[in-house]
DNA sequence: CAATATTTTGCAACCGATTGCACTAGGACT
DNA sequence: AGTCCTAGTGCAATCGGTTGCAAAATATTG
């Protein structure tokens, strides 16, 4: 591998000049810059990231923070798609992608500590937004920069983020049901501490109110929680008027479908469902789930683009809204 | 952050001695080692990864190579679970996790090139095994080490890998069907260039032959391929004798379920299905899919443990087989 | 044309580790 | 006591970059 010294020698300049030329330092004349560039070309020069990071006290890598390992999360293809988008953008920006996960919050915090203090990673992408998240606090304490996927709870103006308009998405989904003649619609969520879920619910509520309809909501606990099934059955029998569900994730919709079928309610009751995230599996469901596509890959891609362009002491924060789209399938019937 | 010089000063030794003490160099007396260790403690010393990588010409990071971006892959929670396992092991080994993806093979190759030549990453985990994979060739050319998840096609003895016993898993699944009285069983795959699929099919074939049954197989193309549905219908009508499917991934099973239902064949024909990978979604299917759990997180974890312990010029290769387990649900009926 | 201003460049230190080799101290041996 | 080992340690170079500051080269001005 050619080093900067080789380039310097070939271009007949000193390494310092070469370095400055490479970074387009205005102190270097256009003539020498050209010479240096040519030398780089012929030697196939590529900088050593570790040397750079050492000298700069700042790595070229982007840290990616996944939410603390809940079974549910590590099973949701959403994150993998986001990762793919991040990876793509980083590839084009010549940045490395560094993963941070943890099975507990303490572990994750520690991971991040190491990445920053020992790895000199200074830019992160946080793949979720949660209320009072200690991870963000840590990041700030360590003087690291981050962009979020999802709207932040705190420092909304100072934090760069990319998100869907989840309120609008929540509305659109609800409106879709209303347009199909549904009047008694229930919103199903999982954890309202998550901004996504909260926003979608807000959107749902708005549409219901606008149409003078009653608001119903139901918390369906995560997969592994045992009594979940029972809860659904109970809810259904106590609310015979409900004809449609808006579920914050396809997975929840799928589970409701399943309960409906197994409890033999499917025969005597027709229930429509609309979900979010458009997982492959919703296509295979029966009936195939109508779902709101949120373009996770795009979310990741844009977040990474922002992250790599983050300057050392940036103060203006970029916000970007990625559109969503209802994918109509067969789980919503007209009443 | 404390540097090695600070530690050296406090321990009243030179940086070189401190460094050697930290690496348990036998040239250093136990007495000084103890002094150095105490100094490390009191200063909360932690080495700078970039400085280390620079001096060693070898990064502490593990590169993780995902398969080239086929829609199908980036949707399969399997990989996310594997990643989780890798991340966990790396956390305990104080190693960073570096992701490599690409939307084309060229892109992925380039990514890897950069990681090795500019990032000094020398240890990789390859999350799949494919016939004649140029990625592996590249890795070897670059003189990088890798451990595979899945059995390698080439250099089987020289390559460390962790895998399920997919032949056995394939047999077990087939035997499970046979035990339930099925005689006309069809194996459904996707891409036989993938070792997993090939192995599972081999296992299936063995059981069929042992039981004097006919071998049937069927290639169901990836999700996005349009005519897929038609193909299934065609196959089903041409083979009225088939009573059970063994599908190489739950997703394929789900798709077959769906066709069966939508084509109204469900009424006049009862078909059993057993899949692999035990995705969450198979639980939500109707009927819930019986599936072979392969413990992806464990696969990743073990692979990472091997990777971090890889020496600079290791020659013995570790192989590790992770067990599998049939998760019985409701998609297999007794005939 | 000398004096000064301005642009370009290079020297040398530094980032935080690792390591070959030379040096020192102490003990064993003649 | 002098010589030779051996074990333990430190010096200084190195990895491949970046950057403050001074020096050199060139341009501008009176």
UniProtKB/TrEMBL annotation, chains A, B:
The keyword Transcription applies. Keywords: DNA-binding, Transcription, Transcription regulation. The keyword Transcription regulation applies. Signal peptide: none annotated. CDD domains: HTH_LacI, PBP1_MalR-like. One of its GO terms (molecular function) is DNA binding. SUPFAM superfamilies: lambda repressor-like DNA-binding domains (SSF47413), Periplasmic binding protein-like I (SSF53822). Residues 2-56 form the HTH lacI-type domain. Pfam families: LacI, Peripla_BP_3. SMART domains: HTH_LACI (SM00354). It comes from the Bacteria. PANTHER family: HTH-TYPE TRANSCRIPTIONAL REGULATOR GALS, LACI-RELATED TRANSCRIPTIONAL REPRESSOR. This is LacI family DNA-binding transcriptional regulator.
